[in-house]
Design brief:
By secondary structure, the chain is an alpha/beta fold. Helices cover 38% and strands 16% of the residues. The chain folds into two domains: 80 residues, no CATH class; 198 residues, Vaccinia Virus protein VP39 (Rossmann fold), CATH 3.40.50.150. The strands form three sheets. Strands 7-6-5-8-9-11-10 form a seven-stranded mixed beta sheet. It has a two-stranded antiparallel ribbon with strand order 1-2. Bound molecules: S-adenosylmethionine.
Length: 297
């Protein structure tokens, strides 16, 4: 943007939005439109520069404007998700650290966490597993929602776990939350009241056709064999053995959910509705998992 300074925050956000919407960009990594992304970019630059209260009249300084232009150029030219450029992503009301080692948090499960999984959970869970944790956003937001709980964040990627560890420290949760390097349940010996999982579920051929922004993310976090169903089905088969009595699995399979339901027509998935957008998240309890998957591995 070429501005004659001074410019205020109101004019600046309008100009950022104009720049973003004039280019062929995809929104789906923390925002779903150019206006929200413009606000996020400006707010992040100002707050990281020590501005505590931002109003429409807040004056943008020359160094702030040059930082905004630098970020805009990378967003537009490289089509990198803004979350990676800012190294932050908002999830369930909390600001997480992110970088290219882990997926950008965006699961609709945030809405369930903000409602403490009511009415699905009758009691606060004491033990929680975030399987396929990436940045740890789901498990850590659960730990914050249930202050008495103990949480394990598990992932096959040591790189993603390094990001999760940064977030454990960021929220001061070292005493209650730990990471576990595991291929699904291979290194998990414990049982849990609540298991939450947002695993990879994108079919390989569809991955190759995704907008450029997704290619900045680790493919390991997105792609699953068997037309996207391979990992979700493995999780369904193995979870019963790791849930306590009355335990609950929350499993996200996104837009592939009709395929999963079609592949397993007898399984009584409860597909959840979201006020804030999103689809393909199922609740299924330990009794149902035992009934439909025990001894069928
Ligand atoms: C869709 S990302 C979700 C990350 C995080 N839960 C979130 O919502 O942002 C899926 C994660 O699963 C991990 N993953 C892929 N295959 C796995 C496996 N076999 N066992 C454990 N984790 C796996 C990836 O490394 C990635 O971090």
């Amino acid at each position: 943007m070429k501005n004659a300074l001074p410019v205020n925050a109101n004019d600046c956000v309008i100009q950022i939005e104009h720049e973003l919407s004039s280019h062929d960009l995809f929104y789906g990594h923390g925002t779903d439109n150019s206006w929200s992304e413009a606000q996020w970019l400006l707010t992040s630059v100002l707050t990281s520069d020590g501005v505590e209260k931002i109003t429409a009249q807040t004056c943008i300084t020359a160094p702030q404007m040059s930082r905004i232009n630098e970020l805009l150029a990378k967003r537009i030219n490289d089509k990198v998700p803004l979350a990676y450029l800012l190294q932050e992503a908002w999830f369930a009301g909390y600001c997480f650290y992110v970088d290219e080692r882990a997926l950008v948090p965006r699961s609709p499960i945030a809405e369930l966490i903000n409602h403490s999984f009511e009415p699905l959970l009758k009691e606060a869970p004491e033990t929680i597993l975030d399987l396929c944790c990436g940045s740890g956003c789901i498990g850590l937001a659960c730990a914050l929602a249930f202050p008495e709980s103990r949480v394990i964040l598990a992932d096959i990627s040591t790189q993603a776990l390094a990001v999760a560890e940064i977030n454990i420290k960021r929220f001061g949760l070292e005493e209650r939350v730990s990471v576990r390097h595991s291929d699904l349940y291979q290194q998990i010996t414990e049982n849990f009241d609540l298991i939450v999982s947002n695993p990879p579920y994108v079919p390989q051929d569809e991955y190759l056709a995704l907008p450029h922004e997704y290619l900045a993310e680790p493919a390991l976090g997105l792609v699953s064999e068997q037309q996207g169903l391979g990992i979700p089905v493995k999780i369904l088969k193995e979870t019963g053995a790791h849930l306590r009595d009355k335990g609950l699995l929350i499993l996200e399979t996104g837009y592939t959910w009709p395929d999963l339901q079609k592949a397993l027509p007898q399984v009584p998935f409860l597909w959840l509705d979201f006020e804030e957008g999103g689809e393909g998240v199922a609740a299924i309890n330990s009794t149902q998992l035992h009934e439909h998957f025990q001894n069928k591995n």
